[in-house]
Design brief:
It is a single chain. By secondary structure, this protein is α+β, with helices and mostly antiparallel strands. The chain is built from 4 helices and 2 strands; from the N terminus they run ααββαα. Strands 1-2 form a two-stranded antiparallel ribbon. The longest helix has 10 residues.
């Protein structure tokens, strides 16, 4: 909760380099939800490619995505993690996998030609956003 301001600053205008890397890795409709009372977040996204492992490696090897993660990681507390965070080469499930119990409706990927979402409502209390050249102050990089 104490990093809500920074997290929303990052995500109200997700860096173009990051959304491009995700898009090129066949990720669509990436959404993060926040539950205020518990301080918990969860995310979901759709994959439209045919080699998930290779596409996820491409994202995790992208220098700008790692730089982005170095600002996101201090805002998150994974349930189970040991070792360096993903921005520093750590591997595993930073986001705890969830089991889908139900999915009603059609596939939303038809809207994937536009990114970022033109209908997104910003959440940062101060109206702040960030870019790769103007990131927020807290990150987990050393040096």
């Amino acid at each position: 909760p104490e990093m809500y301001d920074q997290y929303t600053q990052l995500h109200d205008a997700t860096w173009k380099e990051v959304t491009t890397a995700m898009y090129e890795a066949n990720m669509r409709n990436f959404v993060v939800y926040y539950h205020k009372e518990t301080g918990l977040m969860f995310s979901h996204w759709e994959y439209i490619g045919d080699d998930l492992e290779a596409d996820m490696k491409r994202v995790s090897d992208d220098p700008m995505t790692k730089f982005w993660w170095s600002y996101c990681e201090p805002c998150q507390e994974p349930f189970s993690w040991s070792g360096p965070p993903p921005s520093q080469g750590g591997t595993g499930d930073w986001w705890t996998p969830l089991q889908c119990l139900n999915h009603c409706g059609a596939w939303p990927v038809a809207w994937s030609s536009e990114h970022p979402d033109p209908y997104h409502t910003p959440c940062n209390p101060s109206g702040k956003t960030s870019t790769s050249s103007n990131p927020p102050p807290v990150h987990n990089r050393s040096g």
